[in-house]
Please model this.
Amino acid sequence: MTATEVSFPKLGIHFNVDSVAFRIFGIDVYWYGVIIALGILLCVTLAMKHCKDNKFSTDLVADTILVALPAAIVGARAYYVICEWDSYKDDLKSIFDTRSGGLAVYGGIIAALLAIFIMCKIRKIPFSAILDYGIPYLPLGQAIGRWGNFFNQEAFGTTTTLPWGMTSDKVQAYLRVYCKDLDSTMPVHPTFLYESLVNLALFFILLVVRKKSKHNYEATCVYLVVYGLARFFIEGLRTDSLYIGNTAIRTSQLLSFIIMVVGLVYIFYANVKNVERTYIPEKFLVPKEDDKNKTVKIIKPTGEVEVVKEETKEENKEESSDEPAETTEPGDDEVCLQGEIAMPEIIEEPEETKEATEE
Model:
């Protein structure tokens, strides 16, 4: 493995960093992918754990992840390719080479939201309920994922004289090629660290907002405002920003400003109009205790109705089953197992035979 020395000169910190975590059958596995995978795993675990306290379904968390994750990967790549189309138009195969880098956070978020929206429409689930429950885990995943940029020594800012300025061979090589107006020997802003710290703080803020919020999309809009504001300023420091065409407008900076304004406007609107918060319908939640004991009625060919009670795990399995089953007519709220059963013809026995049988 080839490592690069990373330094924080004014702090007197120096250490080696390798972008490759390990190799399997000669294939390099990068820290970037490992860290993102760990971030996703932690977010899913916490989302599952918090379900019970927030009236949410663990199954719905799993379904949402299965829909959102593939869409996020495709969207993140598509966003980057569109913004850097000149680099891909002559070699379309390189579009699928994600190992060489090129994923954009905003593209992943937009695509994931679109996929979740479609799922909610199909299954008739309130879109706001999904977003407001899941939104705290988005900045947590971002906070962890940004450390993949550190191991790759990318997504850093312009040069700085601040105490925490960072430098490395990869940073200096990048500045010499792409930022010739900057002194490549100077430390740079560790913008990945700035964003990671903001997102970590935002995660805890959103947990509180989600718990106390009484309005639809309020937690989601708090994310839009805080992250949009932070990303607007952090993006202004970065040296690897994507731009709109040949303009000097940074794509992510413009988008950050837009989502921040949208979030502020909606929060004001939701509070003035008192837009009530929508929760997940009962049918998507974990079955209640009362639902665990179900009565099933089986209609026999003779016309009798046998009542069968489904026992819960907590009930004693050794109860006697010799007692006669209750016979009654099925109610509207009970399940009846009845099909088109051919009723056997009942043949009247002669009176003499009946008396013999009784004796």
User: Anything to note?
Assistant: The chain has two domains: 4-277, 287-314+323-342. The first helix runs from residue 31 to 49.
